[in-house]
Amino acid sequence: MNWLQILNNTFAQILAPATLGYALAAIGLSVHFGFAGLLNMGVAGFMAIGAYGFAVSILTFGLPWPVAVLIGLIGAVLFAIILGIPTLRLRGDYLAIVTIAAAEVLRLLFLTSSNRAWSGSADGLSGFQRDFRASNPLPPGRWGFGPWTYQSDQWWVIIVGTVTIAIAVLVVWLLMRSPWGRVIRGIREDEDAVRSLGKNVFAFKMQALIVGGVIIAAGGIVTAMGTNVNPNVYVTSQTFFVWTALLLGGAATIFGPVLGAVLFWMVRAFLSNLLPALVNAGLLPFLTAEQSQMLVFVLVGAALMLLVIFRPQGILGSKKELTFVR
């Protein structure tokens, strides 16, 4: 086995666009679940809205990429409002059901062949990054050090994604230290008590759903900047991966979602490289290379169950912050 190659591929995931996108999605989900107590199971839907809003705005309407980013974020606001109006007056379970169904409806909407002209159907969308790459101020070529050696266009995505994460972390930190953040935490603990103090619980929940949804959509946009957009990416398992990253790092924390996303993708990359190497070396004779890739998901799922059982607050979290462990 080539351990150097395995470790190189593992550490390269730290700055991969997918890691940056999932970190943003986990930050947004932390606003929803960790701070406001909203069970959003439609993370993939918000990411799809951001990515398709970005891609379609460029390919169909020819808008500049900064305007396309804004369109994707506005789409997330509208999506959050549509989801929130019928559900936020009810208990959290209803929001979970509606969001996971809405995300699947969106995926099928993008997948249907009748919308091929603008969504690309099963083929997805490509070529929309040209304007973004043309704005790249970095010198051309491939450069970097160690496992973090990328093309200039990849570095441009990494820089934009990293700056976006820094902004999202700062915004969430400031919000949670403000009176608004204290109300949000109060709603998570006991919304009836907050309502008795004269606060409009529905309005605060809607605001939290919008803020988190916009950050999640930004994650979808950053991911789309580094790859094509395809409806088969925005499946339910993507939502579960973001939840895994969030719970791993710590739900009601500022930096936990970023740490969780990095660790999640590093572990997944490590197993995806290690298990096939073990199969090829004859150390796992009962598995094929394809089956070893499926085993990665089994191990990730088992790790998530153990995490929820033995450390539900995550690496950086505090157990008293989480309502579901009371």
Architecture overview:
This protein is mainly alpha-helical and 326 residues long. It has one domain (3-141, 150-325): ABC transporter involved in vitamin B12 uptake, BtuC (Orthogonal Bundle), CATH 1.10.3470. Helices cover 70% and strands 2% of the residues. It has helices at residues 3-12, 17-35, 43-59, 65-87, 92-111, 116-119, 130-134, 152-176, 179-196, 201-226, 236-249, 256-280, 289-310; strands at residues 142-145, 148-151. It has a two-stranded antiparallel sheet with strand order 1-2.
Keywords summarizing the entry:
globular; single chain; ABC transporter involved in vitamin B12 uptake, BtuC; mainly alpha; 326 residues
Task: State the gist of this model.
With 326 residues, the protein is mainly alpha-helical. 70% of the residues lie in helices and 2% in strands. A two-stranded antiparallel ribbon has the order 1-2.
